[in-house]
Design brief:
It is built from 14 helices and 15 strands. The chain is an alpha/beta fold. The strands form 5 sheets. Strands 1, 2, 3, 4, 7, 10 and 12 form a 7-stranded mixed beta sheet that branches. It has a two-stranded antiparallel ribbon with strand order 5-6. Strands 8-9 form a two-stranded antiparallel ribbon. α4 packs antiparallel against α14, α7 crosses α14 and α9 packs parallel to α12.
């Protein structure tokens, strides 16, 4: 359930609920069910019994329908209206994939405006200065959200939509699902642009898509998405779950890397959730050492850098470690239980390894922690925008608000 009293009921609490249900069932049997069944008007006529039964069924269904309608779009009325974070203004001009995963032409979606081909543009502002200003603004908003831990009445997405607020690459099939190994041709933005940006990795790099797309549309860049669920974009055999082999990942990886190389991108943004993966040792799982992880990244980045491609390594978004929408619904006026410490949310060691990879390969590493967290905690809501999709991804709405931060990062990398 989305709305419940606690996000994680203990065994004792569950046992108490079961016991209370049994007591109520026994009481209603004694006081209602048996007296009604023994009424003369019902025992004397089968027709009367059937009519009463039908009436009870209709009443129950009607009550259930009323409850369902009332709770489908619950209103958060805490009396607090948070500062709003504007979405990227370019969202309405996105172009869907030029070719769908099935190979059929897609064209321009109804109600959208196609982006004309032009030379990639950059702002006249120094991107480093723009990034510094944007990160300072976001840090202030994050700190204010920590200081006022209330679900705002104007929260977006609404509580009931947060767990389904995914980037469009899910629906497009451009985040390749489990059991599939084909690399679909997923191109967004300005398909005729001479400047191509590519996303390569698992769903943790795909979650940056809304911000990267908005920047691509603004600057007339071509955006290529090469991502797969639970599969790193690295030459590294991993298991699906513990000791279960993941053959479609192993088959997808070389094809994905080759696709990115063939696109001759100006920038490749790489990202993978390291903590998820175990090495596939032929029916057994093994720990992936720093050396093995670094070597896999280096094997991908080296030919890209030799071809003149710039590589951007982003630190992962914070890991909530809980289903945040459920937690928020249970703590509307005090969201502190839904806040994650930086120590739990940010994998600092994984970031250090990526920094080392960037230094070795001449790539760029950027730490995104300040986009979400203070020095100590990561709040579940920033301004009026809920941050998380689930326990380990950010949602598409919050990702889109990161456009003013992502855009100067990409511009700065392009200028290197």
């Amino acid at each position: 359930m989305l709305f419940r009293s606690t996000p994680h009921a203990s065994a004792g609490q569950r046992a108490a609920v079961v016991a209370a249900s049994l007591v109520l069932a026994h009481v209603t049997t004694l006081l209602i069910e048996r007296p009604v069944r023994s009424m003369r008007v019902l025992t004397a006529s089968n027709g009367h019994s059937l009519l009463v039964g039908a009436a009870c069924i209709i009443t129950s269904l009607s009550a259930a329908s009323v409850v369902a309608v009332a709770t489908r779009h619950p209103t958060v009325d805490t009396g607090y209206v948070a500062p709003t974070i504007p979405s990227a203004t370019t969202a309405a001009t996105t172009v869907p994939p030029t070719v769908s995963p099935t190979g059929s032409n897609v064209g321009t979606a109804a109600g959208t405006t196609a982006v004309s081909s032009s030379t990639a543009t950059t702002t006249t502002l120094d991107p480093i200065e723009a990034l510094s200003a944007a990160e300072a603004d976001r840090a202030q908003l994050v700190a204010a959200s920590v200081a006022y831990p209330i679900v705002p009445s104007n929260v977006e997405p609404p509580l009931e939509r947060q767990a389904s607020d995914r980037p469009v690459v899910y629906a497009d099939g451009c985040l390749v699902g489990y059991g599939r190994q084909r690399v679909p041709p997923c191109v967004y933005g300005d398909a005729n642009s001479p400047t191509t940006i590519a996303l390569l990795g698992d769903s943790h790099v795909a979650q940056w898509f809304p911000a990267v797309l908005a920047a691509a549309v603004e600057h007339h860049w071509r955006l290529v998405v090469v991502t797969k669920m639970g599969c790193p974009g690295l030459p590294l055999p991993v298991t699906y779950d513990h000791d279960v082999p993941y053959p479609d990942c192993t088959a997808w990886q070389p094809a994905a890397i080759e696709r990115v190389l063939s696109e001759h991108p100006a920038i490749v943004i790489m990202g993978n959730w390291r903590a998820k993966y175990s090495l596939d040792l032929g029916g057994k799982s093994g720990y992936i050492t720093d050396q093995r992880w670094t070597s896999a990244y280096t094997d991908v980045i080296t030919p890209l850098r030799a071809a003149g491609t710039r590589v951007l390594l982003l630190s992962d978004a914070p890991i909530a470690r809980m289903q945040v929408d459920q937690c928020l619904s249970a703590h509307l006026r005090n969201t502190a239980p839904c806040t994650t410490s930086v120590e739990m949310a940010i994998d600092q060691h994984a970031n250090d390894v990526l920094r080392e990879v960037a230094q070795r390969t001449g790539s760029t590493f950027h730490d995104t922690a300040s986009w979400f967290c203070t020095a100590t905690v990561c709040p579940p809501i920033v301004g009026n925008i809920a941050v998380y999709l689930n326990d380990n991804h950010i949602n598409a709405t919050y990702a889109e608000t990161l456009t003013p931060l992502m855009e100067p990062v990409l511009e700065a990398v392009l200028r290197t």
